[in-house]
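Reviewers asked in the last cycle whether our approach scales beyond single polypeptides. To address this, we selected a multi-component target totalling 225 residues and predicted its structure end to end. The input consisted of the following lines:
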Amino acid sequence: QKEVEQDPGPLSVPEGAIVSLNCTYSNSAFQYFMWYRQYSRKGPELLMYTYSSGNKEDGRFTAQVDKSSKYISLFIRDSQPSDSATYLCAMSDNAGNMLTFGGGTRLMVKP
Amino acid sequence: DARVTQTPRHKVTEMGQEVTMRCQPILGHNTVFWYRQTMMQGLELLAYFRNRAPLDDSGMPKDRFSAEMPDATLATLKIQPSEPRDSAVYFCASGLDRAGNTIYFGEGSWLTVV
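The resulting structure, written as structure tokens, was:
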């Protein structure tokens, strides 16, 4: 079993929908949680960053961490076709900046 | 605009040929990572350098792959001899080695071995 599990999708939603993307993990030492967005034929780019448990909001994006359940989520409100991409969760412990990635979820937002 | 630079962006080569991919990390970053991405396996860590020293290359097939950092501004990933199963996107990423710091990816080198 992988340390970080993520449903590969694809997830297809209509424009304007609320999207929920999730990851589960097994390593309780993870403290830092990130979401990367990867457009087709591009490198992953950092989208959201959260330390420990709680929520963080940035525009239409909300990242949520539940350490007790070892579960993180990314919510996208009012989804747009430009949000169509693969979303990778990533996390790290206190030892440095080595990240453990999920496999990515492919999201398609249809006009 | 600081960014990780990778060359070549695309490479098509014949089986058995040597392939060298290069990466210029963001100035000041002291960790460099090489990843391989495929549809089946997702992102796989191949090699990890801190202050130019290799720390982890357990994900790399040792018989044909090698990774080096000749200086702080250049990291290389070499495949010799290349095989069709090496066809993938190879990403370089760099960051500062500090708990909680993130890493920044290049645009990738798209390799096709025929």
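The longest strand of chain A covers residues 85-92. We regard this as preliminary and will revisit it once experimental data from Aim 1 are available.
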